[in-house]
Specification:
Order of helices and strands: EHHEEEEHEE
Number of helices: 3
Structural class: alpha/beta
CATH topology: Chitinase A, domain 3
Shape: globular
Number of domains: 1
Strand order of the largest sheet: 5-4-3-7-6
Strand content: 25-35%
CATH class: Alpha Beta
Largest sheet: 5 strands, mixed
Distance between the termini: 26 Å
Length: 133
Amino acid sequence: MDDHIILVTKKDLLRISHVLSFQGSDEFESLELELDRAKVLENDCVPADLVTMNSKFQFLNLQDDKEMTISLVYPSDSNFAEGKISVLAPLGSALLGLRVGQSINWMFPDGQTKTLKITRMLYQPEESEDWHL
């Protein structure tokens, strides 16, 4: 992952930490490290362009100019066919805390590294004051 500052809401940090406590695997160590170095924001002080849990957003693959819309969700809600990516999936954990305009270099299963840029926030629970999500 890149050296950019990760921003995460207090609510998301608590919920993700709770989910991780039941996983019992070193598989999620990179997500735990990201959360450890994250700047934690109060739930009502979140920038509107920040990828938080249950956000729906678009990102652009800069190598092939393909745009994709996804929602970042908890594992129980994940469904790749519906564009719902789990925060525990490597790509999901890499996108958490990014802002519109930021990008990451991501290695796909075929071994190719591509640059993914967050281009648009379509829905963010904090911006919509959907505090229950």
